[in-house]
Amino acid sequence: MTDWKRLHGDHFRGVRCLVTGGAGFIGSHIVETLAGLGASIIVLDNLVGGDRNNIAPFKHEFIEGTILDEAVTARAMKGCKYVFHLAALGSVPRSVERPLEYHEADATGTLMVLHVARSSGVSRVVYSASSSAYGDQPILPKVETMATDPRSPYAAAKLAGESYMSAFSASYGLDTACLRYFNIFGPRQNPNSAYAAVIAAFAKAILAGKPPIIFGDGEQSRDFTFVHNAVHANLLAARYGKPLKGIVMNVACGQRVSLNQLAPMMCELLGRTDLKPTYGPERAGDVKHSLADLTRINQILGYAPIVDLSPGLDATLKWYASVLK
Predict the structure, then answer these.
(1) Upstream peptide bond of 141 is cis (omega within 30 degrees of 0)
(2) Among residues 154, 164, 181, 320, which one is catalytic?
(3) Per the CB 3.0–4.6 Å rule, which of 29, 45, 61, 210 could disulfide with 50?
(4) Mean pLDDT across the chain
């Protein structure tokens, strides 16, 4: 689907890279791409949200453990040039139920990754940040210079991670970059959680012959972003030739779709136009609208989306149809 060799050449060939959370959804796609580009990959994952089957086909070294363990993290990071830091607990609604757990994993865990990277000779840490940092501000599109307004413990913890990225660049000269993801979707995103992301949850329901459930009035909109775009942004950030100093950059497609538009689109792609969405109450911590401005990441990294919503959705639904039989 994506010609990674054309996009990134031999830059990662033979380069030792650590992917924290590499057995998870986005992490496994980074592992897959780096493996195809000839990198030497170490995956550190505690398998709370990840699955070794996600990366089984791709050449890598696997270390099972948590980023909160300094010794394990140091062993995983030894000799690495780049660290792609994706290990985190996801889900806004679940963070509302478990704020302390989310702070420890997402904020303290990020601090530990930086602490170890500082003494390990790492060239750059690329951090998977979250557009939830913008909160529910009505101004669209979201620009990185806007004030942040986290509305959930998840958003607050991920934003704390951004602050640590900036602080470690300023205090210790460890180069870092923060990529604020907007609603990433794609193959290997878990549909079997009560907190599943909306495309995964819709796909599971439709394939089971059930109507997709929309929480709220369905007019909430999202900048849905196929996972290959997130991978591309990570690789561009890692190989950038000048210091990035913890800069925050949006990663998205720059277009928004409402859930009332998304549900029938997915029903049609799966041949179930007879299914109509049902509606439930709004969920605490959810934001109403999300749309990214991509000017900064385009100007700095040359990033532009490489897979649009329609082909990304098609590839994703084909994958769900193959695994949710």
Answers:
(1) yes
(2) 154
(3) 45
(4) 96
